[in-house]
Amino acid sequence: MKDKRGDCSLLTEETLHSMQKIKPSLVGSVMARNIGRMTAFMLVVTFTAPFAAYHVASGAAVSALEAQLQRSLVLTNRAIATEVERFRYLPLVIGEDARIRALSAAGRDAAVLDAANLYLQTVVRQAGAAELYVLDSRGVTLAASNFATAESFIGHDYSFRPYFQDAIHNGEGRYYAIGVTTKKPGYFLSSRIDIPDRPPIIVVVKADLQPLEVTWEAAGVQTAIADRWGIVFLSGNPDWKYRPLAPLSREAAERVAAERTYDGTDLAEAKPILPAGVVPPINAADMPALRVDGEGQQLLARFSAIEPDSWIVLAATSTEDIAKLAGFWALAALIAGLVATGSLYFLHQRALLIRMRLRQGEILELKVAERTQDLAREIDMRKRTEDELRRAQEGLVHSEKMAALGRMSTAIVHEVSQPLAALEATLATVGVLAEKEAAAKVGERLLDARALVKRMQRTVKHLKTFGRKGASELEAVDIDIVIRNAIDLATPRAKALGVVPAVEVQGPAPVIAAVGVKVEQVMLNLLLNALDAVEGRPAPSVTIRRTTDAGQVSVTVIDNGTGIAPEHRDRVAEPFFTTKLTGEGLGLGLSIATAIVQEFGGEITFAEAPGGGTMATMSMPIGMPSAHPLEAAQ
């Protein structure tokens, strides 16, 4: 950055030196002419650019709206096709049922009709159709899903409906209309069921397309569907419903009246939606976008067709934002022109400002470099402080382990002295037996001596492992082995108190990612605290319970001691807090244990045990260790 800025400064100085060689008047004249020409050009551009920007932005906005409408048409067509296809094959499937086919028999009794009605009622509930009914070859309803309602179709003649006539002649029919019985609109799909040696029957399903209309209206979408005559029967705009796109022809009016398609509506008084002179599109895909009046606002509309019903889908959107957007860009162009024109008068000030900013930048870089050095020193000091704190923490952890060993020293000496005394007596017996040449008994006594040596070795091994400073590498730790090692270390103390810790485990031994000796230290600390709590109690007992649940392993140490006072329960893990007499501890055990468990993603909690005493629970996540050391993970 300094080199580049130095080059800029050099270039500026060379330019000033070259300009100093020219006469000031000539330089002023040339600059004035150039600025005058550029100003005149910018004024022309400033006053013509808004008009051009307005037309370009308007055209772009219209194109964007047309593309949006085209996408809306595609989605609408797919939604309609999906809704219709749900029930397309339902009449044929129902027609294969024996209860429906039995309706074609001449002698239909009440049992046959009841079975068919109940079956249709069940299918409607499961399939989600509006209604299901069966017509005979004359168009009279034999059975219907709404047989038990006041609007039952049974006995009604629907032979005038196109869907019946098409099904009789072509095998299937489809038609949208307002129901003459229920006065509710729906889409009727019919299929002829041919039965050998019997008159055919017609199965009709009525699908409710009103949810589409409700969705459009709730979303404020200007979408509508018109039939082949151009009459809108579904619309997100309530003002368009049951209105023709263009004035109806005489033939269309007569057919709609004969078929009672929109029974109860006055189509003759309905105002056409499209502007006068615009004919509904024959091929909606080829028809350009149109401007349509919609409740006092201008709408841009596009069309598409849905086969095989020859429906016309209309999607429209307001054009109010087009003028606003075009006006915004025209105003932006005007402002840009004015800004560009005014900027010509400030070129010299800008050059001076740039040079001043360059000098300020150099000063700022210097200050940043100084501050960077200060931060580097602060970071180095912080790292040293953190290292010292880490070493101090490790020293405290080791000191607490040594303190735990000190608390058990008397019992440990007793644990080792007993095998030593027994070993001495055994070896003396071996000497006597050797003099008597009793080789068999000598071997037995030597085996006893070896067992005593192994017992002392195991105790010393645990003490040696526990006493060394812990590593920081994560390893796979078997929690049950941790429990056994802690019990072995605390056994002398437990024997001195007359306590045999009970162990209860649930399921196979889980593995955790931790440092074994540290977890063992936590376990020993909890166990020793439990033993201290039951000292002097009648019938003392300590139970270690290991459970697993939801990827966590929990080890609970339960004692029947005096328990933790409620006012002390939240402070037991604080450093240097202790309820023991002076000299019996520093109060760091539970604080360090809590820090160790939290280091491996776990926690220690305390609660009152049933019947009195304390429940100390160590919970840790189950999982294998990663390849990174614990310190790197921190």
UniProtKB/TrEMBL annotation:
Q: What membrane topology does this protein have?
A: Multi-pass membrane protein
Species: Ciceribacter ferrooxidans
Protein name as annotated:
C4-dicarboxylate transport sensor protein
Residues that span the membrane, as ranges: 40-65, 326-347
Localization of this protein: Cell inner membrane; Cell membrane
Q: Which reaction does it catalyse?
A: ATP + protein L-histidine = ADP + protein N-phospho-L-histidine
Gene Ontology MF annotations: ATP binding; phosphorelay sensor kinase activity
Q: What does this protein do?
A: Member of the two-component regulatory system DctB/DctD involved in the transport of C4-dicarboxylates. DctB functions as a membrane-associated protein kinase that phosphorylates DctD in response to environmental signals.
Q: Cross-referenced SUPFAM superfamilies, in alphabetical order?
A: ATPase domain of HSP90 chaperone/DNA topoisomerase II/histidine kinase, Sensory domain-like
Keyword set for this entry? ATP-binding, Cell inner membrane, Cell membrane, Kinase, Membrane, Nucleotide-binding, Phosphoprotein, Transferase, Transmembrane, Transmembrane helix, Two-component regulatory system
> Key word Cell cycle present in the record?
no
| The enzyme's E.C. designation | 2.7.13.3
Record has Disulfide bond as a keyword: no
A Gene Ontology term for the protein's cellular component: plasma membrane
Lineage, top ranks: Bacteria, Pseudomonadati, Pseudomonadota, Alphaproteobacteria, Hyphomicrobiales
Q: Which InterPro entries does this chain map to?
A: HATPase_C_sf, HATPase_dom, His_kinase_dom, HisK_dim/P_dom, Sensor-like_sf, Sig_transdc_His_kin-like_C, Sig_transdc_His_kinase_DctB
Which residue intervals define the domain Histidine kinase in the entry? 411-624
